[in-house]
Amino acid sequence: MAADDAELTDPGPLKPSIVVTAGAFLLMGAGLAALAAGLQLQLAIQIATWAKVLPPLMIVAGVVSMGVGGMLARARFWAAVLSLVLALFLGLLGVVWVAYALYHGFFAPLPLISSLVAFLAVPVIPFTLVPCWRVTRARKALFAEV
Fold first, then answer.
1. Is the pLDDT of residue 1 over 50?
2. Where are the domains of the chain?
């Protein structure tokens, strides 16, 4: 029984692993690049086609990704699941913008950087699910005792 009590009061299981921290860092970096790209595109060019929705989407997705990345750094399981969706969305959003821009004869490097960082985050974030789930279970067990 003492070993069980020690497991519940030990803060070790509540600390996020290095994989969780790396996934959060990559997602926040992709979000920051998407926010910067969206602001740059929104302020610098006028778009009269369907693509005018892309810069505001980049801004919103960037802000949301930075917030969710912060929660992922705290090892929240819901943030790990949402991070995978956001990383894929940021990557695809950047690719769509870069393809549109290149087709129309201009180039902005920030959406490309955002896509690259987001696509770097995609293979890392699934490995955050299990550590986040363990931290969630440890939190529930600790709060059940209090």
1. no
2. 18-141
